[in-house]
Amino acid sequence: MVVSSPVLLGEGPHWDDVEQALYFVDIKSHSINRLKVSTGEQTQAVIDGTSVDFVVPIWQKPGLFLVAVGLNVSEVEWSGEDIEGPLFGKPMASVDSDKPDNRFNDGKVDPSGRLWGGTMGPEPEVGHVVPRQGSLYSFESSPKGGINVKMHLTGVDISNGLVWTSDNSTMYYIDTGTDRVDALDFDIVTGEISNRRPAFDFTGHNVTGHPDGMTIDTDGNLWVACFGGSQVIYVDPREDELLGRIILPAERVTSVAFGGRNLDVLYVTTSRFGLTPEQLAEQPNAGSVFAVTGLGVKGLPGQSAISLT
Ligand SMILES: *[C@@H]1O[C@H](CO)[C@@H](O)[C@H](O)[C@H]1NC(C)=O
Ligand SMILES: *[C@@H]1O[C@H](CO)[C@@H](O)[C@H](O)[C@H]1NC(C)=O
Ligand SMILES: *[C@@H]1O[C@H](CO)[C@@H](O)[C@H](O)[C@H]1NC(C)=O
After folding, report:
1. Ligand 3 test: best mutation among 179, 202, 205, 206, most atoms within 8 Å of CB?
2. C-alpha span between 102 and 70 (Å, rounded)
3. C-alpha to C-alpha distance for 74 and 297, rounded to whole angstroms
4. C or N terminus of the chain, fewer CB within 10 Å?
5. Rounded Cα–Cα distance for residues 232 and 158 (Å)
């Protein structure tokens, strides 16, 4: 079911359980968006900058968000109402200073409130990304003052799909260019990751599309958006098993998050950016958020970030 009007390149869905609202970004109009699901009210604020790549609320600071703007993590104050003119974020941290044409892509907050965000290389044309230019970072305020920016992975094509298991032992990660979901050992105290290994391979399972954003359910199974595949697949990453798929009326499926009063609705973001008029005629709702119900599973609410100040 379509639950929002279309944006250009929807990404980064985050379920705010307190507000019962879905936050997401439109990378190409560089906006942050909020969908109040009970009323369907959809509001938007454009952020000054070239791309806006993820948005997460700051823990216990209503109206304050950490937003990826280009290569910056910025703190943005937003009432949640439609805003005339751009909002100006306060830059808190910057990455990839040697690669100014990179941009952030997906970002998430780990179970301890630490922000993670990864980058990707420039896109000279839609669908073609200069390979191996991206990195994966985490951000936390340092006990000595300032912000501790840690680089964890380099040589990434398109950084995507971060989730953590409920026992905090494992992080799942996607570099879209590998066509794989990888597992890594995760140390919640130090924030270190290690022992990266393949958990689910799109090519081996003959899955159509490329892995983009993902989320995890309370059974520990993964729900993975398939960009270019018109579907979300769900997989058991411990058994390397494809459990099923949800077909969507939009080809470029970008990310997923569980939400709703019982956390049993799967919200799916999609893109219409770069589609031809013919493709748009066939998938008029491309770019909208879709809600999938009746799946019989539950997810976890979006994790808000500990303030970086
Ligand atoms: C990113 O941060 C730098 C350094 O603080 C700042 O000069 C620049 O204007 C910021 N760019 C955006 C798009 O916010
Ligand atoms: C995982 O970490 C969170 C945050 O520190 C904690 O609240 C939770 O109890 C942890 N879960 C387990 C199973 O240790
Ligand atoms: C792979 O998937 C395609 C498209 O869904 C299908 O036509 C083809 O038969 C599949 N091949 C194998 C080996 O399963």
Report:
1. 206
2. 8
3. 34
4. N
5. 18
pLDDT in tens, 176-202: 999 999 999 999 999 999 999 999 999
pLDDT digits (tens, 9 = 90+) for 64-99: 999 999 999 999 999 999 998 899 999 999 999 999
Residue nearest to atom 7 of ligand 1 (CA): 91
Q: Is 9 left (phi over 0), alpha (psi -120 to 50) or beta?
A: beta
Residue that has been written with the tokens 């390979």 in this structure: 131
Query: Closest Cα to atom 8, ligand 3: which residue?
Result: 206
Rounded CA separation 297/295 (Å): 6
Considering only CA atoms, which residue is closest to atom 8 of ligand 1?
A: 91
Strands 72-77 and 64-69: antiparallel
Say which amino acid occupies 83.
I
pTM above 0.90, yes or no: yes
The yes-or-no verdict on residue 127 having pLDDT over 80 is no
pLDDT of residue 121: 97
62, amino acid identity: P
Q: Which atom of ligand 3 is nearest to the CA of 206?
A: 1
